[in-house]
Design brief:
5-stranded parallel beta sheet, 18 helices, 37% helix, 20% strand, elongated
């Protein structure tokens, strides 16, 4: 077995670099390096051969040209043991490079900075790095390529276990990681340049001609929605949520947790939301979190069994004790003080999740369809009191307006057709009944009314929110019959005049938002 004789090291992220390269040198590996990497290694006392000394060609053009050279790529690409390749390498003085340690200019971090200029983004497009990585990865039968500093310990371990070289399967694994990395990198560049081009043309941003998706695996899941389905989680989920206790999250837990976090982010006042199968079954707001819990739980005391509970304040001992009385799958909160943890950790299977970001950042939503993907912006549109247009003879009271805005935030997160009955009183607001996912809006309303009845809650003086327009007067009349005195809906039906007239006939106040919130 041959040994790694020579390594080329050129990195932007220098995490763990000096210790790693120092160990390579101790193993007898000759180190070739470039620019700032070479400087850092020399300052740490690690012997280094400058790239210009290796190639016989100076670095130039602000470092844009330094590794794009036959002595670099020839040393990476020639097939060991191939007589013609060996002869060409010997004839042209090309020494083998057996190990490449490269990570790329931080393009994604650069363009994520507020106000970044195009020239700065372009200067952070790495050319030599991806070229070396791809050359080495193509020839992984002979060359070890390392793109992730997290792999340094494993590389050293493998070298030591295999007599100075890495094993083929390990090199193959590292090569796959390289192509995953360069694919994601190129996709990020293409997306940013497309957006900048649209901006330069003075046109609104559009989706690019090619949609690039590259996301690292976060973890394998036990199964998908059902035990016979395989599943995995990809992306940076751990940057948004931190698990403090309980069993591993399941596929369905993650869906419900995401829905709960999306909903609770809509509220500034202390609020509790209970989610089941991605639908809210109860939401309450109150100055004290435990009171918000009582309001939310009172909406429906059956559906929360095995559900997800989300709060937008640190979860204190009072609400922890109340929640502990029912069976829940997941609780998500900005924090869990020690007293609350002590209460909840007695339930060994209960997942406790700390949310690491208070508000949602608008992003893309993806859905797989036959033959492709559907891609859309997240429905991040908020509606304020100033956006509401009163269309009935009677204007809503202050309490009705408060309740309507509260219900509107919730109905946005209920599967269509969606109906939410709610009420507000001073500093508190609560759901009274939720109807979700029915083929008819009237059916959703009937379910919401029935759920309120089952919970022993009166709808007298309530408001009703509909995620889309009422196509006929019957939906408004049904709400009035149930006790609602005000309605909030998008409007836009060809029968709006009839719907408004029906509301006037029952002395209801009705406001239009001008925006719908379908959720399929």
């Amino acid at each position: 077995m041959s040994k790694i004789q020579r390594a080329l090291v050129s990195v932007s992220d220098k995490t763990g670099l000096v210790d790693f390269v120092r160990e390579l040198h101790a193993l007898g590996v000759e180190i070739i390096s470039t620019g700032g990497t070479a400087k850092a290694l020399k300052e740490a006392g690690v012997p280094v051969i400058e790239i210009s000394e290796h190639t016989g060609f100076p670095e130039m053009m602000d470092g844009r040209v330094k590794t794009l050279h036959p002595k670099v790529h020839g040393g990476l690409l020639f097939i060991r043991g191939n007589p013609e390749h060996e002869a060409a390498a010997q004839k042209h003085g090309i020494k083998p490079i057996d190990l490449v340690v490269v990570n790329l200019y931080p393009f994604e971090k650069t363009v994520a900075k507020p106000g970044v200029q195009l020239h700065e983004a372009i200067e952070n497009i790495d050319i030599g790095g991806p070229s070396m990585l791809r050359s080495a990865a193509k020839n992984h039968a002979s060359v070890t390529v390392v793109v992730d500093p997290a792999d340094y310990p494993a590389v050293l371990k493998d070298i030591k276990e295999h007599g100075g070289d890495t094993c083929e399967m390990f090199r193959w694994k590292l090569a796959v990681k390289v192509f995953e990395t360069t694919s994601r990198y190129d996709g990020a560049i293409a997306a940013h340049l497309h957006a900048e081009r649209m901006k330069a043309k003075g046109e609104p941003a559009t989706f690019p001609a090619t949609f690039n998706l590259s996301s690292p695996k976060a973890q394998d899941l036990r199964y998908g929605e059902n035990p016979h389905q395989k599943a995995a989680l990809y992306g940076d989920f751990q940057k948004h949520f931190q698990q403090l206790h309980g069993k591993e999250l399941s596929y369905n837990n993650i869906l419900d947790l995401t829905a709960a976090a999306d909903l609770i982010a809509e509220f500034e006042d202390p609020t509790v939301a209970i989610i089941k199968h991605t639908n809210p079954c109860g939401v309450g707001s109150a100055p004290a979190l435990v009171d918000a819990w009582n309001l939310a739980y009172a909406t429906d005391k059956q559906a929360p069994f095995g559900g997800i509970i989300a709060v937008n304040r640190p979860l204190d001992a009072g609400i922890a004790q109340a929640i502990a009385e029912i069976f829940s799958e997941v609780i998500v909160a900005p924090d869990f003080p020690p007293a609350a943890l002590e209460i909840l950790q007695k339930k060994k299977n209960l997942r406790l999740i700390r949310s690491l970001q208070r508000s949602l950042t608008p992003s893309l939503q993806l859905r797989s369809v036959t033959g492709g993907l559907l891609v859309q912006d997240r429905d991040a549109r908020l509606v304020s009191a100033a956006d509401l247009k009163t269309v009935t003879k009677r204007h809503p009271t202050q309490a009705e307006r408060h309740a309507m805005l509260f219900a509107w935030r919730i109905v946005k997160h209920v599967k269509s057709n969606a109906i939410v009955y709610a009420t507000a009183d001073g500093s508190t607001a609560r759901t009274l009944g939720v109807g979700a996912g029915q083929m008819s809006r009237v059916d959703s309303s009937k379910i919401a009314v029935w759920k309120a009845g089952e919970a022993g809650l009166s709808l007298k003086g309530s408001v009703v929110a509909s995620d889309a327009f009422f196509p006929f007067p019957d939906g408004v009349l049904a709400a009035a019959d149930a006790g609602a005195t005000a309605a909030i809906q998008p409007g836009g039906s060809v029968r709006d005049d009839e719907v408004i007239a029906a509301a006037d006939g029952r002395d209801m106040a009705m406001v239009l938002t001008g925006i719908r919130h379908f959720r399929h």
